[in-house]
Amino acid sequence: MPVERTLSLIKPDGVERNLIGQVLSFFEKGGLKIVAMKMLHLTKAQAEEFYIVHKERPFYQELTEYMASGPIVAIVLEGENAIAKCREIMGATDPAEAAEGTIRKTFALSKGENTVHGSDSPESAAREIAFFFSELEICPRS
Ligand code: DAT
Ligand code: MG
User: For this UniProt entry, what's an example GO CC term (predicted)?
Assistant: First the structure.
């Protein structure tokens, strides 16, 4: 299996509820390595740019307002099959549909305030990693 990198975010509800350490533990216990990390507070315009693929969706305003409502943690994860592995560890978008033992089943409050983001394809991972990090800020561990 290929070694990949993917972008995860701990969303404002996760930071607000002091879940940073526990979320990182899910990823580390799942076999992914943290190769870059930072905390930041997106502006509304930056949240809109990050989620531009969803701009026609009915929840776009709500989503981008929420993502700009407080600090987040951006993380680059590395490992074999990291993109799918990260999404498996996160669980389904809606916590009511997420599998037992996943981050969203354990912590998410709703479909919108669902604690974590994870890239969904190699193309989105490349775009989303570059949105937050330069190559110099990433420490390869494979
Ligand atoms: P995911 O984050 O699982 O990749 P997505 O890309 O379909 O899900 O949507 C991005 C985010 O938008 C999601 O994490 C939470 C929000 N969202 C999605 N569907 C929603 C809905 N029906 N109502 C409110 N927020 C929604
Ligand atoms: Mg998505």
Answer: cytoplasm
Question: How much is the ipTM here?
Answer: 0.98
Q: Which residues contact 58 (CB under 8 A, 6 or more apart)?
A: none
Contact 14, 109 (CB under 8 A): no
Whether pTM exceeds 0.90 = yes
Q: Is 54 a catalytic residue?
A: no
Ligand nearest to the CA of 124: 2
Dist. CA 89–CA 99, nearest whole Å: 9
**Confidence category of residue 142, pLDDT binned at 50, 70, 90:** confident
In the chain, what are the domains? 3-135 (3.30.70.141)
* C-beta of 131 in contact with ligand 1 (< 6 A): no
Give the integer Cα–Cα distance in Å for 39 and 113: 18
CA distance 47 to 63: 8
Give, for ligand 1, the residue of 7, 54, 93 to mutate: max count of ligand atoms closer than 8 Å to Cβ.
93
